[in-house]
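Most newcomers find our protein records easier to grasp once they have seen one. A record pairs a protein's sequence with a compact description of its fold. An example says more than a description, so a record of this kind follows:
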Amino acid sequence: MEELISALRAYTPDNEQEKNDVSVMLGLLETQENILTRENKTAHFSASAWLLNREHTKVLMVYHNLYHSWSWTGGHADGDADLLAVAKREAMEETGVTDIRAVSDKIFSVEILTVDGHIKKGSYVSSHLHLNVTYLLEADEQEILRVKPDENSGVKWFLLEEALEACSEPWMVDRIYTKLNKKLLSDAWR
C-alpha cells in the first residue's frame, strides 16, 4: 500500500479534476479500511488501461455489458495494491490479448468514477465509487481477440477519435477518454 501512496503523491495532476481526485484518494487510503477490496461498499480502488496498439494510433476497447457502451478495460484491485498488475491482468482477461506491456510504469491518469447500483451474479450491488488509476499499455494489434461473456460482448480496435464516438457514455467521453487522448498526443506524460 505504501508504494501506491508514494505513486499517487509523485503523480503530477493534469487538471483540476485529477488534483482533487488524488487528494481524495490519498485521504481515503489513510482513513478507510478495506479500501483495496469490495468489502468497502462506499469506495474502493480499481485500475484501468488505455490499451494502445504498438503505433499508438488505436485503442482496444470492450463493449461493456453493464454500461451498454464501448469502454476501456479495467477492474477491481481486489486487495492487490500493484494497480499496474491489476490493469494488465484485467486487459488480458477482458480482451484475450496475452502480450501486453506497460508503455510506462507510471500512473497515466486518475479519476474517481461513480458506479450506479446494479445486479451482478444475481445480487444487488449498491452505488459506490471506483478510485481509479489508469495506466498506458500497448499490445500487438494482430493478436486474436475474444470476449469475456460475463463482462463484455465485444472487443475491438478503434482509432483514437473513433473511440470517443463509439462510447455512449457522455461523461466518460467528455471527462475521461478525451483527456486520455489529449494527454497521449501531447507527449506530456513521457
